[in-house]
Structure formats: structure tokens, C-alpha cells
Amino acid sequence: METKQIWANLSVKDLERTHEFYTKLGFKPNGEFSKENGLVSFLVGQDEFVVHFFLEKNLKPSMGGEIADLDQGNEIMFTLSADSREEVDEWAEIVKKAGSDLFSKPQTIQGNKNWYGCSFADPDGHKWNVFYNGK
């Protein structure tokens, strides 16, 4: 069997807030935004990785259990690749302007002078990092 596509399904508490945040980051909308369908979706990166954000109450029945409380722990961290240290710094500014704080400011990662990145959480606590590998 061959997998044709993979996408992420995440829960959120406020679709409008999520739509506004990711639009400010420059993510490409995947279809028209409508609160009525209980979902907002974006295409991320050159391969257009699909990330669906469902209202928590709509996603929970299909999860087979509780949805993680991101105030108490973590679920996953998505990584966005950057082409330079300057691009990482630009992402950090865009994230701040969109209304999120960085929980890891732009910096060298794990002592490797070629690795540089920053990390942030969206309004619901889903974590992302921006990473540059200067090899």
C-alpha cells in the first residue's frame, strides 16, 4: 500500500483566532474559511503539507480519548525550514507581530554553530520551530 498524502489534524478552541493567527504568519489557506464547517485549514511549505484545525468538540469524538492539555504538556512540534539565520530572525518578528511569544528566541541550537532556530506556540499551544541548518 502506498500513502498518497499525509496531513495533521489539531484541535483549537477558537477558529477565528486560529484563522487570523496563521493568516498573519503567511500560511496559505486551504479553501474558504467558514466557521460553519468547524474547521480551518492551511497549506504549509513547498509540498503544501495540510494542517487542519478543528474545533475541539468536533475533533474529540474521532480521537479515541482525551485531547492533550497543552498547558500541562506537549503533543508535537512542527518544524519550518529556513534558508538563513536572517530568515529565522524574520520569522521571529512575524510570529511576535501575529500575537505569539517565542518560548525559544533565535539562537544557536545544542551548541552546533551551524544550527540556528527559534520556537513558538500558536494561541492554542501547538508548537512550531523555525530551523536553519547552515552545514
From TrEMBL:
Pfam families: Glyoxalase. It comes from the Bacteria. Residues 4-133 form the VOC domain. InterPro entries: Glyas_Bleomycin-R_OHBP_Dase, Glyas_Fos-R_dOase_dom, VOC_core. Transmembrane segments: none annotated. This is Glyoxalase. The lineage of its organism: Bacteria, Pseudomonadati, Balneolota, Balneolia, Balneolales.
